[in-house]
């Protein structure tokens, strides 16, 4: 089971977030809170893909640069990017200059556009996978799950890239599909309350 550690204010938080002020702000205000905005969901999934093989601190520190580079993750705009945009982004020192990941974002933007046509929204699709509470493992004790494997497999079938089970599981944590805050973490009950007020876009 994940442990908590006191933050600068002495209050208990998930141990992983204590390393930097940026982590603490992200942990306290974003991580695990339910998201139903398609643009934000697309951003979170793309950033988790960029994080593969790197530290989250690197990605979080470059997040504003990523937003500028990818039109604030408006997938309808990113879907229109061409080869010259890939070359432009490869020259952008403010982001992670990895050709495969950059091309994946553009590819996934096109897939996202198709998903909206088929499912109504990205939110309806992803929230359709929300697990039952009783099926969840103890917080932060795993890096994949049956559901992350299922989502990953389905996304790949639909043409998405850089969406392996570990990346998808991190996305599930970040977007609030699961509440993976440690037991005793000050933010866990806040996320629980936010989820109780939240209407599942998939109607679950």
UniProtKB/TrEMBL annotation:
Pfam families in alphabetical order: Adenine_glyco
Superkingdom per UniProt: Bacteria
UniProt cross-references to InterPro entries, sorted A to Z: Adenine_glyco (IPR005019), DNA-3mA_glycosylase (IPR052891), DNA_glycosylase (IPR011257)
Protein name: DNA-3-methyladenine glycosylase I
């Amino acid at each position: 089971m994940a442990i908590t550690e006191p933050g600068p204010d002495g209050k208990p938080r998930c141990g992983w977030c204590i390393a930097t002020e940026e982590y603490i702000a992200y942990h306290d205000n974003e991580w695990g809170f339910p998201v139903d905005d398609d643009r934000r969901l697309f951003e979170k999934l793309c950033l988790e893909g960029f994080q593969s093989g790197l530290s989250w601190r690197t990605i979080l520190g470059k997040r504003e640069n990523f937003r500028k580079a990818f039109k604030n993750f408006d997938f309808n705009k990113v879907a229109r990017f061409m080869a010259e945009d890939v070359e432009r982004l490869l020259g952008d020192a403010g982001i992670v200059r990895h050709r495969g990941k950059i091309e994946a974002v553009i590819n996934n933007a096109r897939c996202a556009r198709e998903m909206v046509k088929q499912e109504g929204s990205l939110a309806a699709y992803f929230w359709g996978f929300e697990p039952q509470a009783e099926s969840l493992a103890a917080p932060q004790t795993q890096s994949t799950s049956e559901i992350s494997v299922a989502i990953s497999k389905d996304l790949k079938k639909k043409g998405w890239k850089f969406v392996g089970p570990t990346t998808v599981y991190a996305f599930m944590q970040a977007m609030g599909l699961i509440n993976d805050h440690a037991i005793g973490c000050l933010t866990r009950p806040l996320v629980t309350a936010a989820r109780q007020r939240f209407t599942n876009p998939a109607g679950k």
